[in-house]
């Protein structure tokens, strides 16, 4: 456990070295958040039927999305791990007395945690004090908030488990770009990051509900706004857990099989 | 301590000739060639030895080191190091070894060296007291005091290499694998690194396996060399023996008062001649050095004579030639 704490520490240290990057990130996310909200606002004004998610819930959804970007985006990657694999520095990782899957999982988790810790507060705080209707609102009650925290964290663990497959695929392809694009586009779309899932056509919703992606973002954000009722949220937590265990197991098997065939080239 | 028996490893490499046509063809059909990186390599190393592992580029040195450190899985053969099979008992085994890959880095690029060390401390679960003593020792012997708080990206190659070596030794390993540890280092750093390797070998009894292309490293450190070429083991033994077997040539350089008559001494080859200076090469198995000098002194007024053994580099070149590798 201590190893994982140290990895988190060193990641935070690195993250803090790049203050301007963090600031720029915050600015971008505000910009993006406003644009999205205004687009949806325009759509909502001229909607012929009542949309399945209210504008207020949607705005909260978008701000949460921007604040926890590092928790939910598949393209948010650790280039260092890609470099390790493609440059052969993975040699050193294999000389450590740790299980590689666990170690990398901790690294990825730490990177997302450190990044979110540095960036979520300014966005959340400012979003609360924005003029109506652009402001973020508190969850309906304390239990909802607790459920939100649980589902958000489980979602993060799930996302890291999904992203591990990206890194594993690089062992085979040796270039992260392809996997990143496919994973990034599909994953983001089916996580409801481009269009919230309730606004998708029904047939697409069905697909999204089967895939694991939406449990990382769409689900916790809708739990927060109360759009998903508490009893459904509790069932959802178990589904998240099921997916998490399944993907962790699958990832471990996949990593062990690529490691057996790994070739570190060059002297 | 270290025992390799019949270790073989081959790589499947896609074959591709140059040109657009060939490149297009290889999109659909790829030919592969099997490259035999290691072919039935066997040797044993005892505790406390320093072994130089040499061979020309592409001989399979790094592959062997990678197999011995549990990174690569060989195709065949057995390897037992301290009772472990490296690639099978990887996690348990690697606690006991330290590895330095001269061409790679294990330090975190953006943070001070000491932060990387702290992380390694937790990865290897080093008790705080042990960590402190080892670190102090490393800081002192490798002269890291001034650089340990600087981010790795600001270090020069030599400074970084010293930190890499320190990082590989924090957990007090019993075996140290060094894959070209002196690559790219200046003379001063090289000597510092060599001195340090010698010290830990003598004081802590660390077994060292070292690959390098710098024969001075080998001469300064190793009493035993293992030579491989094209994946096969060619020589395993003392370095002096190598000298005796292959280093029988000596060079005699003589300066003398002006003498315009050229001369010929039986058993020698003239490499260079001028009225005041000559360089001769002799084979000590056929001609005695003293005989040559006696003859020389009869023919010219000697001012100065130097006798040089063949440099180890030349011996190695000769060896490579002899084995056709």
Write the layout of secondary structure elements.
The complex is a heterodimer of chains A (267) and B (325).
Chain A: H1 2-17, H2 19-45, H3 55-67, H4 69-72, H5 79-87, H6 90-94, H7 100-128, H8 142-173, H9 176-190, H10 202-210, H11 218-225, H12 230-260
Helix pairs in contact in A: 1-7, 2-3, 2-7, 3-7, 3-11, 7-8, 8-9, 8-11, 8-12
Chain B: E1 2-15, H1 20-28, E2 31-45, E3 50-54, H2 61-68, E4 76-81, H3 90-93, E5 97-101, H4 113-123, H5 128-141, H6 157-169, E6 175-179, H7 187-204, E7 207-211, H8 215-221, E8 224-229, E9 232-238, H9 239-246, E10 249-256, E11 268-274, E12 277-283, H10 289-299, E13 302-309, H11 312-322
Parallel strand pairs in B: 3-7, 3-8, 5-6, 6-7
Antiparallel strand pairs in B: 1-2, 1-4, 8-9, 10-12, 10-13, 11-12
The Cα radius of gyration of chain A reads 19 Å
Largest sheet of chain A: none
Quote the average pLDDT of chain A. Answer: 86
Helix content of chain B: 25-40%
Task: Explain this structure.
The complex is a heterodimer of chains A (267) and B (325). Chain A is built from twelve helices and no strands. With 267 residues, chain A is mainly alpha-helical. Chain A has one domain. In chain A, helix 2 crosses helix 7, helix 8 packs antiparallel against helix 9 and helix 8 runs parallel beside helix 12. Chain B folds into two domains: 198 residues, P-loop containing nucleotide triphosphate hydrolases (Rossmann fold, 3-Layer(aba) Sandwich); 62 residues, Alpha-Beta Plaits (2-Layer Sandwich), CATH 3.30.70.250. Chain B is built from eleven helices and 13 strands. The two termini of chain B are 30 Å apart. Chains A and B meet through helix 1 and helix 6 of A and helix 2, helix 3, strand 5 and helix 4 of B.
